[in-house]
Design brief:
heterodimer; A: 267 residues; alpha/beta; 6 strands; 35% helix; 13% strand; elongated; B: 182 residues; mainly alpha; two-stranded antiparallel ribbon; 8 helices; 2 strands; 2% strand
C-alpha cells in the first residue's frame, strides 16, 4: 500500500499536537518512510530550539527611567487627588468596567480622523510619529519630559499650560445624546482620546455593542453629563449616515472602560 | 526576620488600597518580560517603550478593575499584548510598518549551498501578527500554551494552530527548511 506523503502543514500540526490520535498515527507512519518528512520535522525542531535560545532583550536604562518617572508622577497625582482605586468607593464596579481587557482582534485597515492639534497640546502618551524617527541621543531627555507630561494628560488631571481643566460642554439631562452627537460632528476636542491607540484601548474596554476599537472618529468633545466629566465620541459604523455616539470616562483607555452612555443615530 | 514577599495579587490589592510602593514592586517583577514582548512585536525600541509605558499606566489606573479570573501576570501581559496590537494596527493604517523581508529573500547559491538566513527578529517580523505574538509568547518567552491562550483570550487549539503555522514559516525563513523539502 502506498502511503500518501504528508504535507508540511500536516507535519507542522503533528509537531504542534493538533492532530487527533488516529490522524497522528497515520501521519507518523507515513513520515517514518519519507526522508523529506523527516527533514521537515527536523527543521521544525531546529526552529523551536533557535527561538528558545533567543536572549531576553535588556531594558535600556533610559526607558526604565522614563517608566519609573511616569509611575512616580502618577503616584504624586494620587496624593493630590483621591486615593487610587477610589473611583468606586463602595467597591462596586460599574457594569461597563467589569470586564478584562478585550481580546485580540485581527488588523483591519480603516480611515482615521486626524488627531487633535490644539495649540499647546503635547504629544500624548503613545502618540505615534509617522515619518523619520530621530535616533540622536540628544532627543532622549525631551522625549522623557513629553512622556511625563503626557502621563499627566492621560491621567485626566493636568492640561498643558493650564492648571484647571478646560471648560466642558454641559449636556443637560434633557438634551438627548443624538442631538449632542450631531452637534459634535467635525469637532475633535477630545483630549487624550485623540491618541488612536488610547482610543482603541478605550473602545475595546467599554465594548459597546457594535463599536469596533478602530471605528472611525467623526467628531467629539469633552462634556459634563449628570455632573460627571466625560468625553463624547461620534464614531462611524461603516453605514452611511449611521453613527455611534458614546460618552466615556475621560480616563478610558486600555484595560479601563467607563461607558457613561451610548446611542446609535441615523439609519 | 525576613517577611515573605507579597504575592502579585497581594501587591495589586495593596496598590488599589493606597499602598504607594506596591505597584512599583509589582511592575519590577514583570517589566523585563513586558519589554521583551513589546520589542519583539514592534521592532523599534521607541515604539516598544511607548507601549510598555502605556500598559504600565493602564495597569496602574485600572488595578481596581482586576477581578482575579486570571493571574496578575497574565492580566499585565494581556494589557501589553493588546496595546502592541493596537499600535501595529495604527502603524499599518499609517503605512509606517517597515517592509518585511519576504520568504523569497532566502536565496540558495547552488554552487556552494549557502542559504541566506534571516535573523530571528527579521523572520518574526515577516509573520502575520497573530502568529507572531503566539510564537513570541510560547516559543521565545516559554509561556505554557494554556497561559498564552489566557493572555490572548483564545482557545488553546487556536494558539497551537498559530504556533504551528508560524513555526513552519519560520523554519523556511531561518533556513532550517529547504524549498525542495516543502
Amino acid at each position: 500500500m502506498t502511503r500518501r506523503r504528508p504535507d508540511p502543514d500536516e507535519l507542522a500540526d503533528l509537531d504542534a499536537g493538533l492532530l487527533d490520535a488516529a490522524h497522528a498515527a497515520r501521519v507518523r507512519s507515513a513520515a517514518s518512510a519519507d526522508p523529506r518528512a523527516a527533514a521537515v520535522l527536523d527543521a521544525l525542531a531546529a526552529t523551536r530550539a533557535e527561538l528558545a535560545e533567543q536572549p531576553a532583550p535588556p531594558v535600556p536604562a533610559e526607558f526604565a527611567a522614563r517608566w519609573a518617572a511616569a509611575l512616580d508622577q502618577a503616584r504624586q497625582l494620587d496624593g493630590v487627588r483621591e486615593p487610587h482605586g477610589a473611583r468606586a468607593p463602595d467597591g462596586a464596579r460599574k457594569p461597563d468596567e467589569a470586564r478584562a481587557p478585550d481580546p485580540v482582534r485581527e488588523p483591519d485597515p480603516a480611515r482615521e480622523l486626524g488627531p487633535a492639534r490644539g495649540p499647546g497640546r503635547p504629544r500624548a502618551l503613545g502618540r505615534f510619529r509617522p515619518g523619520v524617527r530621530s535616533r540622536r541621543p540628544g532627543r532622549r531627555p525631551a522625549i522623557a519630559a513629553a512622556g511625563l507630561l503626557a502621563a499627566l494628560v492621560a491621567a485626566g488631571v493636568l492640561w498643558p499650560g493650564q492648571q484647571n481643566p478646560p471648560a466642558r460642554d454641559v449636556l443637560a439631562a434633557d438634551v438627548d445624546l443624538a442631538t449632542a452627537g450631531r452637534a459634535a460632528l467635525g469637532s475633535s476636542d477630545i483630549g487624550a482620546l485623540a491618541d488612536p491607540v488610547r482610543r482603541a484601548g478605550c473602545l475595546r474596554a467599554v465594548a459597546a455593542a457594535g463599536v469596533a476599537p478602530d471605528a472611525v472618529l467623526l467628531g467629539g468633545r469633552e462634556v459634563r453629563r449628570g455632573g460627571r466629566p466625560g468625553v463624547l465620541l461620534v464614531l462611524g459604523t461603516g453605514k452611511l449616515g449611521v453613527f455611534h455616539v458614546l460618552v466615556v470616562d475621560p480616563a478610558c483607555g486600555p484595560g479601563h472602560g467607563g461607558l457613561v452612555e451610548s446611542v446609535v443615530i441615523g439609519g | 526576620m525576613h517577611l515573605p514577599a507579597r504575592s502579585d495579587a497581594e501587591l495589586l490589592a495593596a496598590h488599589a488600597a493606597g499602598d504607594r510602593s506596591a505597584f512599583g514592586e509589582l511592575a519590577g517583577r514583570y517589566t523585563d518580560r513586558m519589554w521583551g514582548v513589546a520589542v519583539r512585536m514592534l521592532r523599534h525600541p521607541d515604539d516598544a517603550a511607548d507601549v510598555v509605558q502605556e500598559a504600565l499606566l493602564a495597569a496602574y489606573r485600572c488595578a481596581g478593575d482586576y477581578r482575579g479570573d486570571a493571574s496578575v501576570r497574565t492580566w499585565l501581559h494581556r494589557i501589553v499584548v493588546n496595546t502592541c496590537i493596537d499600535r501595529l494596527r495604527y502603524d499599518n493604517r499609517r503605512g509606517t510598518v517597515p517592509l518585511c523581508p519576504e520568504a523569497h529573500a532566502r536565496r540558495a547559491d547552488l554552487g556552494t549551498e549557502v542559504v541566506t538566513r534571516l535573523a530571528v527578529d527579521d523572520a518574526l517580523a515577516a509573520l502575520p501578527v497573530e502568529q507572531r505574538i503566539a510564537i513570541v509568547l510560547v516559543e521565545v518567552q516559554g509561556w505554557p500554551v494554556a497561559d498564552a491562550a489566557e493572555i490572548l483570550e483564545v482557545p488553546v487549539g487556536t494558539v497551537k494552530s498559530r504556533c504551528s503555522r508560524g513555526r513552519l514559516r519560520l523554519a523556511g525563513l531561518l533556513g532550517h527548511l529547504r524549498e525542495e523539502d516543502r
